[in-house]
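Input record (one chain):
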Amino acid sequence: MRLKKIFFLSTLIWILLPKTSVSQNLTIMCNGITDTVKACKGANLTFECSNVNDRQLKFNFEDGSLTDFQLKTSLSHTFTNSGAYIVKAIAIDNNGNTESDNIIVEIGTPPLFNNYTTSIDKSQTGICMGESATLTMQIENRTITYIAQDYVEEQTPQPIYNSSWTGTIDLKNYENLTINNADDIEYISTNLEYDNIKDLNISVKCPNGKFIILKDYGGNNYQLGITADIAVGTTYNYIFKEIGTTINETILEDDNTIIPEGEYKSQESFSALEGCPIDGEWQITITSNSNNSDGYVSNCKLKLKDEIIETNQWNFKQIYNISHAVWSGKGVGATSNGITKVTPPEYDINRYDFVVSDNFSCPHDTFVIINVEKPQITWQESSENYIGDEIEFSCQASWASEYIWNFGDKTQFANTNPAPHAYYEKGNYQIIVQATSKSGCADRDTQNINIIPRPLEVEEVNIFSPNDDGLNDIFSFFKKDESYLSNGGLTLMPANIRTFRGKIYNIFGQTVCKWENIEEAVAGWDGTLNNNGNRHCPPGTYFYDIIVTGKDGNSLKRSGTIMLYKPKN
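The corresponding structure, as predicted from the sequence alone:
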């Protein structure tokens, strides 16, 4: 690994204050040995320099932060992103002479936490109260690669209006390497928009002062990118290479005035940069010489060929001590190599945190959520639940494989969602469902439902025609499609009636049909004497008397007439 060292700094002390309680105090001696600092993400690093001799200091932290020259012997900085950096400290005296020193900074990188498993079936959204789950976290060590920052990115596009903009790319870790030929530079690029290319010059200067022009003044009246009045328009990426057509020589067709982004030939050959040291500051300058044209620039980049970049790269290993990792949370057991068993103690969304430290003593954490689901009895909402109504009950528990229902009226049912259930008597019923998981964990829910009788209702019918045509063949006071119970599958009865007595008689006072109970009343009158099916009563007017008591506690007496009608054949 190459690392440039100039010994204007006699001592460099790093004070690390991580977010966690882990403290890191490192002392680095700048004595010509490659120094490496290993720190946690978010740690506060204090650079303290001595023997500066009143020279101004400047730091490039290679994370987008750059300090101005200042008369300070110490400076604090926090790296908010993990990765590898080379911090460059520059000292400048009153005569403009500079010396620099580099220090390697390795910031702890979080592991990839996506390789974890639980013993919970993926089809479930939770587990049973009292049930246990096994959590397993597997972590692979990581290799972090350093690549020199070969670009400058402005936080906001910078204006170009009869002025210059310079982007400085500070290449590091290329000690003693130089540009040997034009092919060592793959391309130089910039993102910008500008009114008129005639008024724009783009150049690049290497650390020893050599420079070339990438785009000279002149050319057609074309624009770069999409310009906008006052505000920034749309910047295009223009790439300058050793071969091709220059931007100034570009000829557009179809009355287009915007030069498309892409690759263009540099105005001057990259070979003019032969002998330039790669280490150091490369400056890309964009200059406008007109008060009538303006634009904006957002970034620039210097891309070396891959073989040179590879000499710059270096790696560091991030090792995570899984044997000392810890799971924590309610009902958690001991952790062994990233594995633990948890038994959540309450109905809730339970969080289980996992913490593992790396070889920098930096803690990294993630968490897993386990929901403890309580079985929940539900049924369709209704303002009143009446005797005889079929009610559809259900229970929601994603972990359950078996259910046992008790409806509070001495009936039981075993199924996920039982068949519609009806109650025969008024009252407040306690419904209990017990859900059992595949592992045998059982839990239950209890709900109460109030059943009331419907108001007493008896239908009045005054005509029927028992001629076996399927229409009005039976005289009855009840609609068989409303408020009926299936009593053991044997007898139909109105849900709101407790007792029923009645008779039908002719104009001579002779009884032709008599009902002593609900079952007989539901069967109705078929138009034969005493419902014997043999002796048909003649057409005409008949009379009825009924006495009814309802399950709501009310009763009624009613008399009326019936017309038995038989059409002539």
